[in-house]
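Entry for the shared binder. Reason: the reviewer on the internal report wants the predicted structure included alongside the sequence.
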Amino acid sequence: MKLTNNWFTSVTEGEGGTMVIVCGRDEIDAFMASGKFGERVEITWSYVRTANGMPDEAEAKRMEEPQEALQRAMEKDKLSILTGVYTGDGARTWIFYTRNIPAFGERLNQALAPFEQLPITIYTEKDPDWNEYREMCSLCEDACRDVQSDDEG
């Protein structure tokens, strides 16, 4: 299975009525079909949002290095793969699908050790059917259909 770094982007509305930017990993059907990545981990970084729900420039920049460190650590041997990133409505959430939650936790601690304590929460759930990923993809499909409809009219 080859992991590409191809992503799609869509915009949706958050619970607070502000914009949420959704970035989803593309070309991961083989990983879904393998049955090896049956657990989902959501890491959420809460921030003080601007009027449009987005982080300010300094906070957005502060999130970049930990995201890169996590992705590098988790994907180096395909223990886990980053499948989605939601930013808006006062939070950035990274979605990973993993083979093993305890190993994910150990690697997360190692990857984030160089950073000061981060404002994150972690949630895990069994998701062998990749329901969250499928829902995220449907958000993009709906947005793409809306754009096509607007272009046709």
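Summary line for the report: Residues 143-153 have pLDDT under 50 and may be disordered.
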